[in-house]
């Protein structure tokens, strides 16, 4: 037979109302009384009905996180950091994968997933700012990533351009002059790929090195795509002495292909990435990369979203903080 709130009240020697107040985190409860109720809940194994509780309070204490694909290492590690940051603040996280599909992003903004959460952390890759604003409703929303940037929306940003320039400058200072870029199209301007390409070009210009569009190879941001793009470069006869993958998965794919082809890294060709996923430290050789401030992004985005959820002020200034990045120099491009 299921344990009820009445059972908890009897075991703790308090009223049913007191048990309800403890479960709903009512602040004006004596610590000793609260502890008695919590002890009784643990002892009896009482489980609260979150649906009924949310109907009464209008709050679920759940945050939503919408991202493209958890098989992408950066997203998986970011999701883990976000869950830790939310847990520390008394919230849990529901995760939805959009698969880069506009209809899935739209559903996450307006459908059942949205109704289960108090606010949403959203990495859009298909919807634009107008579509997001039209669909967002009244619940708080904080964007991550750089595909959409709009002065009307809260977001936590990566210093994409500055960090990419730092990677490129490091490669240039190491004597590299023919730096291939994986993961962008020549002429890209928007989103992470466009901003990182812009940083690359700025560093080349500052060093007086000519930009060569033949060194910019478009591909998906996956390991296999990085390996394929590197193979195409090698087979094309285009000369290059370094590879900059616009994320670590691309760089690791490139590293694999170079080693399979018998090319020495970094002696012949240096390799660098972006994201500092865990695997980058354990590659052989270990991967030079950018740590974009993932833990800071998680902390600041969760803090901002909860601030919006719990604020009594309906009017708030939009916030768009940038996380601090670090260049992690390792064996692939010392």
From TrEMBL:
Keyword entries, A-Z: DNA-binding, Transcription, Transcription regulation
Chain ranges passing through the membrane: none
SMART domains cross-referenced by the UniProt entry: HTH_LACI
Domain of life of the source: Bacteria
Molecular-function GO terms, alphabetical: DNA-binding transcription factor activity; transcription cis-regulatory region binding
Family matches, as CDD domains: HTH_LacI, PBP1_LacI_sugar_binding-like
Keyword flag Transcription regulation: yes
All copies of domain HTH lacI-type, residue ranges: 3-57
Official protein name in the record: Transcriptional regulator, lacI family
Keyword presence, Transcription regulation: yes
